[in-house]
Amino acid sequence: xxxxxxxxxxxxxxxxxxxxxxxxxxxxxxxxxxxxxxxxxxxxxxxxxxxxxxxxxxxxxxxxxxxxxxxxxxxxxxxxxxxxxxxxxxxxxxxxxxxxxxxxxxxxxxxxxxxxxxxxxxxxxxxxxxxxxxxxxxxxxxxxxxxxxxxxxxxxxxxxxxxxxxxxxxxxxxxxxxxxxxxxxxxxxxxxxxxxxxxxxxxxxx
Length: 206
Known about the structure:
alpha/beta; disordered C terminus; 6 helices; six-stranded parallel beta sheet; Rossmann fold
């Protein structure tokens, strides 16, 4: 844990071997074909909200990794507000998964959560070894991100019920690939065993 800021974000730890990644869930879904995706993504978001709550209780930090929509002046909070206030198709998902003030976030320009982002630096700072990868879309951004995570020797967990794609078959195929090639654990979230929360050491002074 960094000596200069041992408690920067209250209940969110500054050191965690396990991290929850939520990829592209803050999304207005205002693009062609998104109606199909919404049908799968909305029930997924309900399950992911429950997993995130469990992770929080276990002391596992959440990192939102979100597309910058090709706008290099994007601001994450502005993207969240847009999805909540402008009557967009993705609003119900964002309501379920709205970030808390002490969650982390990273903006990405392409499919992978790692490509041209600060994610490597943040994960190194946290001391992460295991990534729970969730979000949209299973056969694109989740798969690209999992590939890059595997190349970096992270342990991968991709809960099968917490990722979604345009079709169920595309999602199943992506999950099969991640399990077979990337050695990912695709256990559904209700059966996923999260590490117990570590108690903080209290240092007495005087």
